[in-house]
């Protein structure tokens, strides 16, 4: 039996509209390396698993319905079950771009022992609730050459042994788990790169909508932005973290200082009020520079996102004691 080089780990939940396209893109592509496909399903209630069963040689695992489910848990479980030297993490709403050169990608990682993870070009299609395409980006991260980056998002190849060394995914995070992992990599001296030799396509929903933001707030996903922000101080990448999310953070600062201004005005504290007002105006000017070329809807979404992030400070973290037992996973292997 040939040694498996890459374990392709696909996490999904209710992806009946996308999973066939995802698996088909892998099966049709000549990867030039030995691989296995693991589908980690978070108890889908639609036809996702049945569609996946139509494909041969797919290892399907359904998470325990009693568990808390999030992307980090799906990837963590996949990494523990995988047999490959390298792991490729994908979501069920993604697909491989044509001519993904995994041989070249592995050569890049083998040539430099400090390169722990590698991603590539990400083409995006954005859909509304009616499954109509409302946006398209050919290359979200503008990958023109092999280049070091701060984070790789949710699709990347990683060396399995090094993933274990840095502590794997933080399964207590419902969002921002990829950022947290990437910051740990950088803190420990490892490198993250993007290369045009790899291409992925993402079919995603419109995250700039009140419905999606409200849903994420209900699931306490905004709270994790604060947890990762605090950790970014420890990992010595606070500035880069804030800059990457500058639209939201500038709104947050402005809202906080506006609230402080109101309190100082209420108690007639004039001198500190003047100082805070100056800071608030300065933040507002920074926001203007950021948003002046944005559409009004995106500006409003940044503001609403910031507001939800502020409120999320008061949300409690109920995920601290999550325990994963791989024996509780239901197997639906197809060979």
Characterization of the model:
The protein is α/β, with parallel strands linked by helices and 335 residues long. It has 2 domains: 6-206, Spore Coat Polysaccharide Biosynthesis Protein SpsA, Chain A; 238-314. The protein contains 12 helices and 11 strands. Strands 1, 2, 3, 4, 5, 6, 7, 8, 9, 10 and 11 form an 11-stranded mixed β-sheet that branches. Helix 6 packs parallel to helix 8, helix 10 (246-266) runs antiparallel to helix 11 (270-291) and helix 10 (246-266) crosses helix 12 (296-311). The radius of gyration is 22 Å and the shape is globular. Keywords: Membrane, Transferase, Transmembrane, Transmembrane helix. Residues 7-166 form the Glycosyltransferase 2-like domain.
Concise overview:
Residues 7-166 form the Glycosyltransferase 2-like domain. The protein has 335 residues and is of the alpha/beta class.
The tally of domains stands at: 2
The CA-CA distance between the termini, in Å, is: 15 Å
**Which regions are unreliable across 5 or more consecutive residues at pLDDT < 50?**
none
**Which CATH class of the largest domain?**
Alpha Beta
Number of helices: 12
What's the total count of β strands?
A: 11
Sketch the major β-sheet.
Answer: 11 strands, mixed
> Architecture of the largest domain, CATH level 2?
Alpha-Beta Complex
- Average pLDDT value? 85
What letter string, H or E per element, gives the SSE order? EHEHEHEEHEEEEHHEHHHHHHE
| CATH overall fold name of the largest domain | Spore Coat Polysaccharide Biosynthesis Protein SpsA, Chain A
Helix content: 40-55%
Q: Can you tell me the overall shape?
A: globular
Oligomer: single chain
Rg is 22 Å
What fraction of the residues are assigned to beta strands by DSSP? 15-25%
